[in-house]
Amino acid sequence: MTLIQMQSLPASAEPTRAMVVEVMETGGPQVCDDMSVEVALSVMSAARTGRLLVCDQDGQCTGLVTQTELTAVRDSSASTERVRLRDILGDPGSSVSPVTAAAEAEHTMRFLRLGAVPVVDEQGRALGVLALSR
Questions:
Q1: What is the domain extent for residue 54?
Q2: Beta bridge mates, 123
Q3: What's the pLDDT at 4?
Q4: Regions of the chain with pLDDT less than 50
Q5: How many CB atoms lie within 10 A of CB 125?
Q6: Is residue 8 in some structural domain?
Q7: 106 to each of 36, 103, 131, 132, how far by Cα in Å?
Q8: How far is it, in rounded angstroms, from Cα 88 to Cα 1?
Q9: Of 10, 37, 64, 122, which shows the fewest CB atoms inside 10 Å?
Q10: pLDDT value, residue 7
Q11: Could you count the other beta carbons within 10 Å of the beta carbon of residue 109?
Q12: Tell me, what CATH number does 90's domain have?
């Protein structure tokens, strides 16, 4: 799985002790992985966000897509009416637990060059997004 506004750690949270659940973004749009690229771009526009959490029919988080990724697919020669979000998702393993130390998650994200990752619970359901500050 690959991965609104970038968020940094709150001033009140000690970076070495804060947990992901304390610094993640919540309430962003979640969409089904059978949605087309064109519809996903419309949802992003309406929600005024730059990314969407993607879930399968069972509610399991399967990834995160960005406006940049979707725009690149739309602008390619592929017909975006037939391309589904599941077709463009990257590595399904890129996610983080809400009880992970925020500093550890940030270090891993920087090492893997991920700007944002889904935050998922033990059942694989999306709780929010952890985004790096720039």
A1: 20-131
A2: none
A3: 28
A4: 1-9, 11, 13
A5: 14
A6: no
A7: 31, 5, 9, 7
A8: 10
A9: 122
A10: 43
A11: 19
A12: 3.10.580.10
